[in-house]
Amino acid sequence: MTGKKFEHLLQVRWGDSDRLGHVNNTRFVEYLQEARALFITQVLMEAEGSRGATVVRKLTVDFLRPIFDESGPLLIEVAVSRIGRTSFDVRHRVRDRNGSLCADASAVMVAFDLDTQASRALTEREKTVLAEYPDTGQS
User: Which PANTHER family match (predicted)?
Assistant: First the structure.
């Protein structure tokens, strides 16, 4: 059985390029955040009827090739690679307009209780819905 896919198209913006003429690495991180926030909001809205709060515990990015103004639109693929008791891992792949892999990143996301300001257990429904977006491991 194959899972659902979450993809976000993003245009390279004029101000994203640095003095070297390519998209600065900090912008890559912003691209990842934009796609991940949409994914989490939409997926957890499906699960719970409201966006459960999550925080980034760890973010790792492999910058594989530069992105230029003409590289877009970019396709950012988001998938879930691990689901734990209070956290889950999100894998992001950034592809240019030709399908070339420009970045491969992972984030550890922790479910968060805004009232107690502490981690909370993922609900069974959240786990079920997150599992519908499996990371296939393919680059």
Answer: 4-HYDROXYBENZOYL-COA THIOESTERASE FAMILY MEMBER (PTHR31793), LONG-CHAIN ACYL-COA THIOESTERASE FADM (PTHR31793:SF24)
